[in-house]
Amino acid sequence: MAEEKFNRKNPAVKRILQEVKEMQSNPSDDFMSLPLEENLFEWQFAIRGPADSEFEGGIYHGRIQLPSEYPFKPPSFMLLTPNGRFETQTKICLSISNHHPEHWQPSWSVRTALVALIAFMPTNPDGALGSLDYKKEERRVLAVKSREAAPKYGTPERQRLMDEIHEYMLSKATPVPQQNPEQTSVESSNKVEGEEVQNPNSDVLSDVAGAEIQQNPQADAMIVEDVHEVRVNANAGPLSVRFSAGLSVSRRVAAGETSEVQRSEAVVPKPADDRLFTWAAFGLTIAIVVLLLKKYLKSSGHDFGLVGGL
After folding, report:
1. Transmembrane segments in this chain: where (predicted)?
2. Which of 29, 73, 114, 164 lies in disulfide reach of 69, CB 3.0 to 4.6 Å?
3. Is the pLDDT reported for residue 306 higher than 80?
4. Which residues, at least 6 apart from 72, have a Cβ–Cβ distance to it below 8 Å?
């Protein structure tokens, strides 16, 4: 890179050159990003799809545009590889992007932003700008296709850099997981009227939540409110996973409370218990009457003959 083209006294240029050096000296298997030689403020990048998700094994290219005030203002991000989660050639809305400058911190870097972008991929889009909500099967198909070659975009210099990054990422990429029939059948069973049950945690917990909704309409309203809060916080970063986990716990507690209430309402006294109670009360009444009668006869002087008879 011809660093003499740029003003090293400029704070933004100085910071960017430091990040380039760090990116080259400490590469990652999960991402790679470098600026254009002719423009330090435009970076090409590629990230690896996060493990244990429908994106695993995929290689996704994109473009980063740094502002002249960097690092005091956030960059903008654009995906170039079809992925089913973000629109291509569209600036995406994330808490680390220029759509939310209030969240950006100058201590963050391109490396930090790429790590966050990988974490955002499996999250619920919740209608955010530049987001897509493809089915898992479609995203897996796109993950396989993304390995074939880098997308075609921009000038020959951009394309050359993208191809180099793609070769590097491909050498570090893990194979795309094969979808076994049993897993496919489980995912198909979780569909309702052709749509998958939306749950950021687990398909199994989705089924449990569905059962609770049928048993307890009041719990339904509570769960819907909690789900809405979690989806709104999905753009807050990796902490949204913790909120989602908390939602799963609250669902299990709600299920336990519901079952206890149902069991307590189901306990009804048996008819045999009622008859036993009636006979006991009748016997006690007779005993009281006999004692009162004996006391009356004794006090009246006629108790000798009658009491013996009794």
Report:
1. 276-293
2. 73
3. no
4. 106
CA distance 254 to 251: 5
Q: Looking at 13, 32, 93, 94, which residue is catalytic?
A: 93
Mean pLDDT of the chain: 73
- What 3-state DSSP class applies to 50? coil
- Tell me, yes or no, if the pTM score tops 0.70: no
- CA dihedral of 31, 37, 41, 43, whole degrees rounded to 10: -20
Least confident piece of the model among 55-69, 169-183, 230-244, 272-286: 230-244
CB 304 within 8 A of CB 310: no
* 93 flagged as catalytic: yes
Q: How confident is the model at residue 273 (pLDDT cuts 50, 70, 90)?
A: low
Distance CA 199, CA 212 (A): 15
Q: Looking at this protein, which amino acid is placed at residue 113?
A: A
Q: How far apart are CA 192 and CA 172, in angstroms?
A: 38
Query: What three-state secondary structure class fits 51?
Result: coil
Q: Which of 147, 139, 145 is nearest to 170 (CA)?
A: 147
Output the CA torsion 126→129→135→136 (10° steps): -90
Span of 90-99, 251-260, 300-309 with lowest mean pLDDT: 251-260
